[in-house]
Amino acid sequence: FRQPSSCPSGKPLTKPSSLPTQSPFRQPSSCPSNSPSGIPFCAPSTNPTGRHTFSLTPTIDPAQRRRLEDTNGNTYSIVVDGFNTTLQYTYDAKFTPQVLSFTPSVLSSGYSENVTFYLGNYGREFLSRNITVMIGDQYCIDVNKTTFGHLSCVLVRNASATTVSEVPIRVYFEGEGYAGSTVLNVLPTVLRGFQLFASNPVNGSVLGGNVLFIDGFGFDYRHPQRHVVQLSKVGLIPYTVYDKLLLSLGFSVYTNRSADEVLNCTILALNASQLQCRIPDHNSPYKNHTYVVSLTLNNIVAAEEANLTYIQKMDFTPTLTNTVQIVSMTTRGEYVFTVQGTLLAAGNVDVKVGEIECQVVNMTNYGDYQILTVLTPPLTAGTWDVSANVATKGKALSVAVFTVGLHIETVRFSTTGGSIAGGSLVQVSGYGFSSICNKNSISVSTISAGDFWISDFESCVPYKLVLRTPTVLNYYLSHSLFEISVTSASISVHQMNASITFDASPFTYSLAHTPKTHINRTSGYGGLRTKVLVTSYKSDGGNGEVNITLAGKGCSQAVEIYSPSHFYDIEIDCSLPDLAASATKYDVLVDVQPFGYAVSNISSTFYIPQLTSLLEANAVQPYDFNVSMFGGLNITVIGEGFSDPMSVTVCDEICPTVVASFTSLTCTLPARLTRQAVDEVRLLGLSTDLISSVSGTLFSSPAPAIYNLNIMDDGDYESYTYFNSYTCSIGIKLPVGYAVSPYRLRFYPRLRHATDFSTVIFEGSNDGGKTYTTFGSLSFIHEGWNFIDVASAASNQWFTSLRYRAADTNKMSRCSLAEIDFLGITAAVNGTCPIVVHSGLTTTYIDVGTAHYASLQTFTPVIRSLFPNNGSALGGTSVTLYGDNLWPIGADDSISVTFSGVGCQVVSHDAYSIRCITGARTPDKVEISSITVNVAGRGFAAVDSSVEFLYIDKWSSLTSWMYQEPPVDGDIVWIPDGQVILLDTNTPILTFLLVEGSLYFDRTKDLSVDAFYIFVLGGYMEVGTAEEPFEMKATITLHGDRYKTIEVPPIGSKVLAVADKGVPASTFASGIHQTGRYNGHLEIHGAKRLRTWTKVNVTANAGNSWLITSEPVDFKFGESVILTGNEKPNCFLYANCFGYEELVVYETIGMHNVTFTQPLAYDHRSEVVEIEGRQVDMRCEIGLLSRNVIIQGSEDNSDGQLFGVHTVAMMSGVYRIENVELRRCGQSFNFGRYCTHSHKGGDMEGSYVKANSIHHSFQRAVAIHDTNSWEVRDNVAFDVIGHAFFVEDGTEKYNSITGNLGVFVKPSSALLPGDQQPAIFWAATPNNFWLDNVGAHSSAHGMWFEFNEMTSVDPGEEATCPTGHALGEFRNNTFHSNARIGLRIYPRWTPVMSDCNEFSAPFPQYLHNLLSYRNGGN
Description:
Layout: E1 13-16, E2 54-55, E3 75-80, E4 83-90, E5 98-103, E6 106-108, E7 113-120, E8 131-135, E9 138-139, E10 141-145, E11 150-155, E12 165-173, E13 177-178, E14 189-193, E15 195-200, E16 203-204, E17 211-217, E18 227-233, H1 241-248, E19 262-270, E20 274-278, E21 289-297, E22 300-301, E23 303-304, E24 308-312, E25 319-320, E26 325-329, E27 335-342, E28 349-353, E29 356-365, E30 370-375, E31 382-390, E32 394-395, E33 397-398, E34 401-404, E35 407-413, E36 417-418, E37 425-431, E38 441-446, E39 451-453, E40 457-461, E41 464-468, H2 473-479, E42 483-493, E43 496-501, E44 507-510, E45 516-519, E46 523-524, E47 529-535, E48 545-550, E49 553-554, E50 556-562, E51 570-575, E52 586-593, E53 596-597, E54 600-602, E55 605-607, E56 610-613, E57 616-621, E58 624-627, E59 634-640, E60 647-650, E61 653-655, E62 657-660, E63 664-668, H3 675-684, E64 692-693, E65 697-701, E66 729-733, E67 738-749, E68 760-765, E69 773-778, E70 786-789, E71 801-806, E72 817-828, E73 832-838, E74 843-853, E75 862-867, E76 870-871, E77 878-884, ...
Parallel strand pairs: 6-14, 15-23, 16-24, 25-33, 36-44, 46-56, 58-74, 75-83, 76-84, 85-87, 86-88, 87-89, 88-90, 89-91, 90-92, 90-93, 91-94, 92-103, 93-104, 94-105, 103-106, 104-107, 105-108, 106-109, 107-110, 108-111, 109-112, 110-113, 111-114, 112-115, 113-116, 114-117, 115-118, 116-119, 117-120, 118-121, 119-122, 121-123
Antiparallel strand pairs: 1-86, 2-3, 3-4, 5-7, 7-11, 8-9, 8-12, 10-11, 12-13, 12-14, 15-17, 17-20, 18-19, 18-21, 19-20, 21-22, 21-24, 25-27, 26-27, 27-30, 28-29, 28-31, 29-30, 31-32, 31-34, 35-37, 37-41, 38-39, 38-42, 40-41, 42-43, 42-44, 45-47, 47-51, 48-49, 48-52, 50-51, 52-53, 52-56, 54-55, ...
């Protein structure tokens, strides 16, 4: 389930770093193994054994070269072992290529650069020549050639900056040598480096704001945003290595940095040799500091011959004093004022009042101080700070303030009398008003009705407000007043107030001046002609303008019809606007200027008229149609009153709205899986996963005695049903109109009661339960999940109910289940459906059209394959899809294709193929991998599940990386959420690899990954899958030093970890799993093997180099195996104590006869013996240690420090490691650092450690801590320090430890006390499933149950008592040839019915088929 993962960036970010301190620095050896063939880079040693020495004048050192013009001096004799020969070697101008020119002419070591060379004398076979390029000591990558002697390559940035120097260019032609410059015997050179030279100005304000000019070399003028200029206080204690690591990963740190200690200078302009940046300003002065100026490009810090410094000091800070004097002011609120200050003459001065920019019209310099004259635009009332910024110094320290007054000059009403419903226009003039209308608090006062606040503004500027009078309708109705006169107006802006009192009221609310209206309808649709009668609309000089609006929309196409009965009456005939149908009525605002809004009345009650918008649906287009079983066809319902909130259903499923207008609603038909469609999928052989859990109504016979049936679907294995009956059944009935094609029944018996069960039958009915068809049965029921698959004869039939049934009557409680799940394909019986429109007003049935879900064979589009199956996220990939029924139907012949939600532009198509060009997938368009094809007139295509297109970018491609900067040694690599990377080349040794997006290993290549940390945090990392394992070789090597490498909480170091993103950063966050794209996913699957271990069929004797296996194996030449001994050990720590052998395979003949590269050192007794009539298998084992996928600790210090790689699922995540070789793993004496580990994972069902070899471990093989339902199966663990298979603290349950082979565990001197007597299998609780395991050659015990009296739990959790726990299941486990005890139970185990109540009834436990033999303590 691939979750490509909110995207900080569309491309991975590489962050080079010099940390950690032990981070390897790759320095070329004197004879690098990667030197191109034929390059004379290393001189042979003086006298190598068995080889001849050749002496020849070196070709690299210019001082040793002869000038080519000296034609007689360019031929040399060859001397072999001190003896002259007749052989000669000639330096010849004819064979000397030339570099005539190259671009660019200078190179930066701070960023990668494309370099192009123009060559001469390059020969006829130029395109086929092997040519390498080295600039300085660095190879150029991606060398490309053209027919005209042009050669280009990419010079990757250095891992650290270099000073500017002239470096040689070595263009090497295999078979000829180096190219010269225009002077043949001189190598071409180029200036390269990344360095700062100077910074100006050198001092400035303690409030920042200054602009720096920095000179240097190697700036990336094309990408200013890559540069970071930082000013760091001199003497500042640097960040620790750990803090730097966290900061590089984007996390915060706890190291305190005050704001004045580090300043980031914002880039303003940049070219190759100079940049400008602004120091951020701030309101409070910083302390006097001297700063070091540094420049970082691609996280590489520029070199400096001497530190560049900048002084921030009060002495260099301009000031403004509180001496503001107003010179003049206009009626619009424009001011001229003066202000005094110091250091204002250092450069141009910018002045602001608040945030408003002002104009400096004059500056007078008085020596120690200056006076500025400033002109402002119209300002808003308030007291504002006056600020200034002075070029070359920065922000001034200002105590100057400027107060802007608030004043109402005039208030002009559009009429002297207006509507009681408000709406008359008012213009307020003055100054100090806010341009943001709602910042002006304005009201009018009346004689008898109090104050009314205005909220209806038309426009606002600092010197004028245009607004409408507020309504007094409610007050008028409640007090029966004839008139309400306005006496004054007041305004408040930014806590400043102004008012105006009128000598005589300029405006009166009166019923006489209130227009009256009558509307001839109270409901309707948009477009309906509506008559609005208005009276009194021209009285007292009204201008006759009438505007009618509903919800802000105008009543259109108005026609005025004057009434013949009264001069001042008018009838307006207009079309209602399009309004969404709604149960809420719309106000009809009839605006009659200058009076305001008209009212309607019934008797003496006045009100704003209202109208209800109705819904009508009367047709659907197309009229009668077929559609794909996957839906996708757009239908349009025709009518009036539609809007987005409305919905259409088809077959009771929502038809998602595409677009809604007033007159139509278009939606996309949903998928409808029918029985006919499923049958056709099978007939056509399509691979489409349609199986899911069956939904319906659970039933049983008889009814359960305790609890109800729904608890069998709650995911809780401890809740269960119980039936007081010898016969019982549990089933599910499908909804009417649906049937199921059964696939599987799975059920989970009541815990520790599997032995109560006998035969169980899975069956189905199609006649309401009268008769049943049997699908399959299961006779042996074990603990945990059990499965019954449907026999092929019934798998294509259809049923309306399924059930689980006990087959006989000799036991009770065979229906006592914790969980049950019926799986199958659920489909509708009928493919013809009605179309229904739903709204808040009514439900309208459309009876003029019907949806017909059509045949897959003849109608539904089908996609069977495509090529290619991947492409770059940059888009532009041509993809061809192949299938059937791809020709559109109807006038619209369009086809749409999307890959993971991104459109693919169709360029051609026919009935069987579609070709399209992929679009660019940006981070905001990240979706789970998917393909949709929609064919006009048909709908969505059925896409075969094997067809997939993945947006993926190659690691090796420069365009995959931010700024086209590929990683180098020591880099931190972040693959962000949404980015998908294909690892197609070996990585450098990375400091940190953080995967929040997706990382796939290229299945066609042998690959290696080297890092100090790999963390899949909410991302997806895949090295093969369970279905398609990785077949090439992959090696993941983790580096680190026990004493130097930083431990990153909580994952540690030298680690491969997976976790969900967003899990709370708490110690007590066990098992908090995230869903969707934040689910961390680690998938590592090596090549499948026939089996990981088996028994040796007959005794293999010392001196023989072969043996016979009991089962077929596929061991290959060169692979390592472990062969167990089978005798009672005579000591406890070394191989010769036990007789095991680690061997190398030569070949396997006939899949049973395994031969080795050396003879056996010991006899390996392998026999089945009969004891008291029982056949006892006492054969020894052989286990495979080698795999094609390897996870390992680095060779340099893992063994010496007992400090290897550890892998972990940290409190969450999906962790699946299968057929992998883990070696040099585990970190001795360090808690929580094991080869494989689920740490506080909670429910980890679906995760597993399966079929791996885990050998030469410094601590444990598999650790299960506070984890449930994890699968540990078929692993081989060999040579392990401490307990190997380890169940940690007693809270773990339902984990399956099955089919594992553990060989040779050694004591640990500093972990748990019990690790001094290690067991191959050790558990702090029995509440798990232990099946078919073998433990041999422990220095102490084969298996040890060491239970605590009570578990230590996290806050909020309930403690349990492992000594009282019952087994999950224990069956067919073997322990032999261990130094002490086969199975040890110590200190005690007293299972009882209630685990923490020792006085509750005993609960007998059964260890089925335990075999323990030839152990030292037996």
